Amino acid sequence: MQCPYCQTENREDRERCYVCDRDISMLRLIVNKARHHYNQGLEHAERGRISEAIDELHNAIDLDRRFVSAHVVLGTLYARLNNFEKAQAAWQAALALQPELNKAHSYLQKAESVQACYPMVRNMQVLSGILLVLALVLTGMIVFMRRKDETAEFLRAAQEAYEAQRYNSALVELNRIGSTPARWQVVPIAARALRSAIEAEMRQRIQIIQELKYREDYAAALAALADLEAREPDDQTSAVAATIREDINHYFRQRLEALLNDFAEDRATYADIATRVTEYLQVYPEGPGKDEFRAYLERARSLEVKRRLDAVRNRFAEARDIPEALANLQVLAAEFPGNETVKRGRAEIIEEILNWSFTRFQEQLDKKDFDGAGETLKIISDLASEFADIVDVTGPVELAFRVLTDAKQDRRLAAVEALVRQGDLAEANEAIIDLLAEETLTSGELELVDSLIATVDRRTARQRANDILAAEQDFLRLRASDAKATATLAEYEWVLLKAPDMSRSDRVRVLACAAAAAIKLGQNATAETLIARIEKDKGDPALVNALRRLQRPKAR
């Protein structure tokens, strides 16, 4: 088991890492949460929400300070915002955790190179600004003179086009000045100054783009190209920009193919490819290679999804942890919404989980583990309800419930039979009452229950008859307690009814005990009726005489 914090491979399956002495299960939970924030950050970045992406990456790092990929991507996002100080800090943090990380080294070099370009860019901007101020001053002088001059109107139009960031339109107006006689000599001077400012600014932008291309910062180079194109450069500058764009597309395609190969060989992550392609498409959404680059990303996404699905499947086969498998599938569906591979793989894994659960349910039934089988069936039922759009197991679930119910009833019936055989008639009677209360017995099971009831009644009646006969002398001497006499009068008829196999002699003796109980309680009419029954059954005359003698003292 590998510790998610220190990456140490533990020598045995332990709950705590023997190197950093940390709770591995808790670390794994934290790492998973950090990974979730990291994936959310990538999704925000892919959609152009840089601020939200940075927040999510900070959340991931707060949970797991050793999350190298989060530091790298965070630095990339800060670099895109031209915040090179924070970008370098993030990349240096990644290198502190993983010194051999080539990507962080490369990003740091690029950041230093781009920062080094900025003084040159500012100097060229200052030069352009000086030329522009000169042109503005000269234009102001012309306006101040208030003398109508067609070339001055051309100059004013050129100035307005430049301020609107339309270089070519400004140059067209300046060309018209060259072919038109000027009233004031200051107009051609101002026109040359403005032309120099425009040409210097276009050269400055081309030089910056070239420098970014040489540093392989293709995203920044494409962003600068898009900005230049929006300013309507002249034909010559447009041609140079087009050539640079073709070079960048070529180099970017080569790097992307290499990155995709690295990803296929597990030398790069899906996040690396997604970040690279997203950066390109954000700055150049309509570039000539957009469809091809999106296809690269789709291939990488399909491979990543397949790997993640295989990981979920293998993890479930290893741990058989259904909640964990479902949680992993949910995370995967959230990271790749609408992905067809995720949908198919999710359906296959849910079906595997259900098949395994049904197999486990049957094994528990075979072992008579009905409580465990009931819990497993509850899990199956919940899965069937939650994923009814994927698999329909309504019929098998209903059948399993019936099988479980029948198995439970069979076990309870067998338990009642065992109680009857053991002579534990009171518990057997209570168990029968519980069975009848469920009202789920089949006709065959009801017949069995009726047979058990008859057996219980017969054996209970015989036990009660034995209890009465054991106290026969107490009854005939009127020494039985009133409670005993009352109970005997209440149950003697049931005893005689439920014990038909009792001998004639025992039946007469039970009647005699009941008659003596009636005499004891002063119920002479009942006693006389019982004595008459004994005489009718031709009972022992001596027994009848004894009962008559008991009556006489009561009569006096």
Q: What tags apply to this protein structure?
A:
556 residues, mainly alpha, 23 helices, rod-shaped
Task: Give an account of the 3D structure.
- The chain has 556 residues and is an all-alpha fold.
- Among the domains are: 108-264, no CATH class; 463-555.
- 80% of the residues lie in helices and 0% in strands.
- It is built from 23 helices and no strands.
- It starts with 23 loop residues before the first helix and ends with a helix.
- Residues 118-124 have low confidence and may be disordered.
How many DSSP helices? 23
- β-strand percent reads under 5%
Q: What's the total count of β strands?
A: 0
Kindly report the average pLDDT value. Answer: 77
What oligomeric arrangement do these chains adopt?
single chain
Summarize the structure.
Among the domains are: 108-264, no CATH class; 463-555. It is 80% helix and 0% strand.
SSE inventory with pairings:
Blueprint: H1 24-46, H2 50-63, H3 68-80, H4 84-97, H5 102-145, H6 150-163, H7 167-178, H8 186-214, H9 218-230, H10 235-264, H11 270-283, H12 290-319, H13 322-335, H14 340-366, H15 370-386, H16 394-422, H17 425-438, H18 443-470, H19 472-476, H20 482-498, H21 504-520, H22 524-536, H23 541-555
